[in-house]
User: What shape does this take?
Amino acid sequence: MKTILFDRIDEPGLNTLDVYQRRGGYQSLRKALTMTPEDVTAQIMDSGIRGRGGAGFQMGRKVSFLPHGDMPKYLICNADESEPGTFKDRELMQKSPHMLIEGVMIAAYAGGIGRTFIYIRGEYQLQADILEAAIAEAAQAGYIGERIMDSDFSASLVLHRGAGAYICGEETGLLDSLEGKRGNPRLKPPFPAIEGLYAGPTLINNVETLATVPHIIRMGGDEYAKIGTETSTGTKLVSISGDVRRPGNYEIELGIPSREIIYGLAGGPPSGREIKFWFPGGSSSPVLTKNDLDVPYDFDAMAKAGSMLGSGAIIIADESRKVLDTALKLAKFYAHESCGKCVPCREGTNWTLKMLQRIQSGDATPMDLDIMASVQEQIIGNCLCVLGDAMAMPIGSMVAKFRDELEAEIEAARERADGAGLEEVVALGVADEHAGPIPVH
Amino acid sequence: MSPIPPVPRFGHGSRVPGWDDAVDLTKDPAVIPDLATTPVPEALRMEIEAAMAKYPDRRSAAIPALHAAQAVHGYCSPEAIDQVAAVMQLTPAYLTSVATFYDMLETFPRPRHDDIYICTNISCSLLGADDLFDAMVRAAAGDERIHVSSFECLGACDIAPMASVNGEYVGPLDADDAEQIVADLRSRRPVLPDKQIRYRRSVDPNVQAGVDQFVAGDHGPRADTAGLPETEAQTDRPGPSAPIEIEPNEPGDDR
Assistant: This one.
């Protein structure tokens, strides 16, 4: 397959303007500036490209929602890549920062936007340093700033470093964070395209989506739409990790069978064991099993299979892994990252974590699984953002698909605990459960 | 994150009265400190003002400003918050609310020399991050200059299990690397240079196929060596990527 985003991405010096320009960089911006903003939007619309950050919303439609007219409008590139298992934007920004900058500028031109921001997660220090150097170079060369390439179009670009909060990857949480507040999500509507940053119309897109825009302009929207499937066009960067021989980022054409990615590209589990469960789109996606390996890897097929493509992060767990261990990691993560604004998410994530810990310590009964499943149902759709859903969907799918194993786990842990308890009583005479302070989490 | 001091509790779990005495509800809220009477280091003030100038609304600079103050003071101390508040003309309460929200902003004192974050999220823990974390804690035990903590997904599952050592991503690590990281930090050497992510090449076979199309000769430094000394940047060191070879199908794999 011909790579688009990853085309010769390891070329030495690609992070510099010289090499990027020699490879035809910023020609798409030049071409876009000779077109009208409406034509550029139409090209993006024709390409059918769907957001690569997780929700999969069509970028062209997002641009077209922006109100026309003379008003302060904003563009934010969401580079707060914190979804567990996802690391595609990291490689893209580190190796080809100018591709992202060019995409941001073209999208800003299409939307008539004068101020753009890249919100990068605080942990990506190397990538932020590289981007900062690239932005300075691009501004020096006149690709950012006043009257870009002698056109009437002007736009600024500011790199904003976050400070470590998963919730700031959610678009409205990101807006609050960028405004200098705690990153709490907002009520929608109004959607950011109408009222976003500083209450102005705001276009928010993922790094990968924006980095694709120069290629759409270069190839033409119709040509780009020929790649992939009818409703999931183009190529996608897939981050594969966990129990595979060759973890890493791969650029694939949307719609190829998942097996091809997991076994063909990444080599399957190194132990030669079978796959037990896998996340097809980051830790927020409901888990699939080895029976789902032939599902085509695109947005609609994944949704039909009961999961989602999400950010394109595949995490593989082989047969030797316990579902409970992964569920615990998952619940701990979401309980820690819940911002605390909505009750179902704040309480639901913590209750789920406590119930899973109870299974591990041998204090649970199979009825806890029913309670856990009902807690997940209470979370889904009842919060301002999808952080709670992001835990409820995979945990719910684990309880549904691996109930037998979890029940066996409960039984085994109870037996372990009972045995230990008995020995303790014999040794001490009396077991004092309440001795000493209770540890605070 | 530094551990929050535990609230004292009785054996039966209730909090000992007075645990929240630090909050005086009858006191007036702190006002915006006066820049004229609050001593702020010149460099810090300029850095914060430069950050404020980048945004249409000065409050957007809260995170960069607190980062800058943390670099000066070691953590977001009440003094640091006051200084930022004076420059940005915001209340200390507002800035405290921001500082307490984000994991990378510390509101409790801690030894601040070397930070090691071990990712213990799903992908890393599948490949042994919990053992690595234990090994790292043991290796750094007794060294007050090194601060080891577990962290949520750092976005580098391709080198799992991994760690961020003073912001430098290294991996894949095994338990033996823990000692080496501590030794490298003590002697102020670059940490595990052959495992740093900046040298890692793409594993995508389609990317590898294009390697021979690189224009030879006069090109800049490698794509991922920003921030390295000049001599280092020229060195073309392959990363620890697994070799690219499509292996025959698994037995029983009827693809």
About this structure: Strands of chain B lie at 114-119, 146-151, 163-165, 168-170.
